[in-house]
Amino acid sequence: MKNVMIRAWEIAKEAFVKFGGKTKEFFAQSLKLAWKEIKEDALTVEEKIAQTFEVVAALNKVTDLTVAIKFWTPGVASKERIYFNIGGTRKDLDTFYYAIAEDAFYSTGSGNSTKHEAAKKAIKVARTNIAEIVKKYVPAA
């Protein structure tokens, strides 16, 4: 709670510098923004990726949206990958993977524009958190 309040005042001070006025005039909105930041930081990578597919899941009547992240190796380090499967019990929505040696993402799915946009957002989330994902899913050598 203390961290939220401190962050809210920081945001209010930033707004004061940018827009003028009084810091306390910005505090209510700053508090909302600070809570939003804290909640987003509390989400796991899997939850963040799942959020990008909520619309696609609803359109496909998938109520148990899950994200499975798995490390795959064919025994050759240059071909190692991390796969991201998004789907539910009875339906896969999309799959994409991260080629570790190439430091690149590849989408294996196809579909409508809504699904394509969701995949782009999911890959962006994964790219932002790739260090955490590699640390969590790739076994130490």
Report on this structure.
With 141 residues, the chain is an alpha+beta fold. It folds into 2 domains: 2-42; 45-137, no CATH class. 51% of the residues lie in helices and 18% in strands. The protein is built from 6 helices and 4 strands; from the N terminus they run H-H-H-H-E-E-E-E-H-H. A 4-stranded antiparallel β-sheet has the order 1-2-3-4, covered by helices on one side. A hairpin with a 4-residue loop joins strand 2 (81-87) and strand 3 (92-99). Helix 3 (45-52) runs antiparallel to helix 5 (113-128). The longest helix has 18 residues, at 2-19. The mean pLDDT is 86.
Radius of gyration, whole Å: 19 Å
Distance from first to last alpha carbon = 40 Å
Tally of individual helices: 6
Total beta strands: 4
Q: Give unreliable regions as ranges.
A: none
Number of domains: 2
Mass-distribution shape: elongated
The share of residues in helices is: 40-55%
Helix- and strand-based class? alpha+beta
> Which strand-content bin applies to the residues?
15-25%
How does the major sheet shape up? 4 strands, antiparallel
Query: What sequence of helices (H) and strands (E) makes up the elements?
Result: HHHHEEEEHH
Residue-averaged pLDDT: 86
Give the strand order of the largest sheet, numbering strands 1, 2, ... along the chain: 1-2-3-4
